[in-house]
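Dear support,

I submitted the protein below through the web form. The confirmation email said the job was done, but the results page showed an empty box. After a refresh the structure appeared. I'm attaching both so you can tell me whether what I see now is the final result or a partial one.
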Amino acid sequence: MKKSFSKQLNALAAHAHQKDGDSNALKYVCLLEIAGMPLPKSSFLITYFEALLYLLAYPSSPVEHALVEKEIRRIKSFLRREQNNLSKLLQNTGLPYGTILTHFSHDTSRWLLSHADLKTEIDSFAETKINLSELLFMTLPTTEKHIAESGLESHEIMDTLLVSKKNRLAFILKEFSRLDQQPQVKDTLFDQLGIYLKVNPKGPGFSKASNRLAGGQIYYHNELLSRFDHQQLIQTPLSKPKKLTDSERTQAIQVVKNSMLLTVRETDPTTHLQPGSFRIYALDRGIAIALYGMEASRQLPFESYVGYTVFKNGLPVSYGGSWIFGERAIFGINIFEPFRKGESGYIMTQLLRVYKNVFDVNYFEVEPYQYGLDNPEGITSGAFWFYYKYGFRPVDKILYKKAEREREKIKKNTGYRTGVKTLVEFTESNICLKLGNKVPPSVPSVTSKITRMIQRSFNGDRARAERESIAEFKLKTGIKRVSEPTSYALNETALWAKALNISDQKRLSVMAKMVNAKSRDMYAYQKLLLKLLTKL
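What the results page shows now:
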């Protein structure tokens, strides 16, 4: 009886995540069988491609890995011939020749326009309450503002402005670039424009399978690691980051940014990545973790939003970030869909290890969305218990006790499952992992003091509060001129010093150094912040 592609694909899926000898043998047979079949022109092709991605990240042997690479090349050749016929199927999949159709921020759109492997153009404008004419009124020279007042539709006003069709995206992006010094205003207005882009790869090289770190030795898996001492691993010292040449750093950053584009996602740290902050830590079992911060104009008050990308055998398998303030961090993890049945717990623990060692974080909090709030998948997957397994507990004392009782029920009855109602109830509180004996201060504990100070000392006049706090801080610390990037940190630090009535010269000296470090070196800034917080 002739075997169908779908049946062989189901058989491959049944064994793909098993690493025992029998499963590896059956998996290889399935791959050989599929390799001898015509590739389908249906969603089965997408399912097969994602199964191959998983096997690239978690190969069992060099022979299996070589066959997977061969099948990836076969898919590329197939799609080179069939891309026009399968354009709708391939859209937003990350397969070779697959177009991407979505809405991006101004900065990402600008980056796309300069991407050597892509051709990006306007697909459409969504129906919004504000049109391009109204927005261009804020950016056009005064001699052309009357055109923007005419109420023309998006393409009509560009016709009037003599903008050719091929240059329309570049024109819009350049106009909004005039607002670069007001990034939040720019983002809000550009988002209201509702512009949808169509991103077309110029060749087969732009795909999830090709988007990898260069070089590196392949790690072959005899097993998937699910049992390990997570507490000991978190405490394990870390080697220094890899030494990267300028070209290696540029290539690695491109892979990080591409990984978001290929999955039709966008995060602030990847969009506004500061190249000088980029580091890669090589770890065990084929894992590497890239850390990166954001440009000065995009940084948050007091804390550092540090993004990460996790690589497994060179492929991006996870992304996210932490909002770090001294010893405290709000932590989030996202595993890309094809890799969710891999070593997720081990990957998360390695992330915690990196953040602890690099930034001296001893307290991690996870917000409820990660395990179910407005996230049905988090409830159905029991994500709360995933975090619980690795030491996270509810911050709320009542929910903490409820979780302990629920855990006892699970221990006593192997068939017991926590009900949906209870899992939803757990999302009423953050969960935390304590690596020390204390709960470090949070950013709101600082900002709330500043708000009270502004009301008490300046009668709510925020402009005056900023102006006088900065003048006083400069006088006490000897700071004279500051660059534009540094001014963001100066404003917040001066308000902090005023709110806490800090007059001690040692602490003021640390704060002055923080002002200069915030915009250029998040690692140095974190060390200074830790020093300050121990003195407060």
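Response: this is the final, complete result; the empty box was a page-load delay. The CA atoms of residues 24 and 131 lie 57 Å apart.
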